[in-house]
Design a protein that fits this description.
14 helices; 379 residues; mainly alpha
Length: 379
């Protein structure tokens, strides 16, 4: 049995249009960031009682996305799946782009870029935040080397060492969760389940975005995998979304049965948040579209399921950050540390977020023509 490579040149594509749109979004984000730099963090909706918001939610999402992509990108190499080799290259590239954007979310959250060096100078090896910084640097190195090797090395056997390293780097995403899980003063974050939940969400985000990109690239004329080849990835995405919802139910039931004041406040805050219901409805709808035989093999429905899964994850990340500030475990006499009212991102924050998402799309589109995404067809 021999293998032949199909034509790698895309047909007529509308990707340049999307390149312009994403570039304009990025410019909008730069403009919004300049306003934030000139007026200070006060130009956003962040304050002492809500120190973390949509920027941190974006950082969590893109760090998880990079980790999930490294895991999924390593699987075709580790388990000898040549048909899925293009999917490995795309995953490694998305992991790299995700790290760039995730790092920029931290940069804009700091308020002043010149404060970034303090994370290194005053870093404490006992701090989970330093672990996360080191993990981000490690991700960047591993993703770069992995992508470079995928583009230049033809033998999968030669790729297995770096693929194995990428796999374990992706598994380490749970370290990001410890930044939150060790916050003893925050009822919702202080939970041993957070590292597991983070890794599950990382796989879900990677699976959903890969599905969406594969369907979109196929429609744009690129020779990528067919829907029947994407069915296993759709199943993995649905399974991880379902597991994430199950962990949510477990948290709610556990808190409700404890009957403690703080736990019941968490339950009421979650059930009263629109983000919770967006998460649940979008998650269930995504699972149905990605699993039902009538929809899982149709590109349009598969893309819709992937979009709903990404909406589920975006709501999940925003809710996660919000709930961390909803109920505190530590009270100080005469000091109000609970938030006054809910947190909603302001126009400046929304502008910066749209700009970073635009940059992410811009980087992806620039890379598509250089990834040689044609699968190997058997004859």
């Amino acid at each position: 049995m021999t293998t032949t490579t199909v034509n790698e040149t895309p047909k007529k594509s509308n990707l340049p249009v999307w390149l312009v749109v994403s570039g304009l979004l990025f410019l909008l984000g730069v403009f919004a960031w300049i306003i934030q730099l000139r007026q200070g963090v006060g130009a956003t909706s962040l304050h002492n009682l809500n120190a973390w918001g949509a920027y941190i939610a974006g950082f969590i999402f893109f760090m998880g996305l990079s980790a999930g992509m490294l895991v999924l990108g390593s699987l075709p190499i580790l388990f000898n799946l040549p048909r899925f080799r293009p999917y490995a290259k795309l995953a490694a590239f998305v992991a790299l782009a995700s790290l760039v954007v995730g790092g920029l979310f931290i940069l804009v959250d700091l308020g002043h870029p010149d404060r970034l060096w303090r994370l290194v100078r005053f870093g404490n090896l006992g701090s989970p935040m330093l672990w996360d910084l080191l993990l981000t640097v490690a991700y960047l190195i591993v993703a770069t080397v992995f992508l470079r090797r995928l583009m230049t090395v033809k033998s999968d056997d030669a790729l297995k060492p770096i693929a194995l390293l990428a796999f374990f780097a992706g598994l380490a995403d749970g370290l990001t969760a410890f930044v939150f899980a060790t916050q003893v003063g925050r009822e919702f974050w202080f939970s041993a389940v957070q590292p597991i939940a983070f890794f599950v969400a990382a796989l879900a985000s990677a699976g959903a975005l890969l599905l969406l990109l594969m369907v979109g690239l196929k429609a744009a004329g690129y020779n990528v995998l067919e829907c029947c080849d994407l069915a296993p990835l759709a199943g993995l995405t649905a399974a991880t979304v379902g597991l994430g919802l199950l962990l949510n139910v477990s948290e709610l039931v556990t808190h409700w049965f404890s009957r403690s004041t703080n736990a019941l406040e968490i339950v009421n805050a979650m059930l009263g948040s629109p983000l919770f219901w967006v998460e649940v409805i979008a998650g269930i709808a995504a699972i149905l579209l990605l699993l039902l035989p009538a929809t899982r093999l149709q590109s349009g429905w598969m893309a819709a399921g992937a979009v709903l899964a990404l909406i589920y994850l975006a709501a999940k990340r925003l809710l996660f950050v919000n709930m961390g500030f909803a109920v505190q475990n530590i009270n100080y006499a005469g000091v109000q540390i609970a938030p006054v009212g809910g947190y909603t991102p302001g126009l400046v924050e929304l502008g910066v977020i749209l700009g970073l998402i635009g940059l992410f799309a811009f980087l992806l589109i620039l890379g598509f023509n250089n990834l040689r995404l044609a699968p190997t067809a058997r004859s």
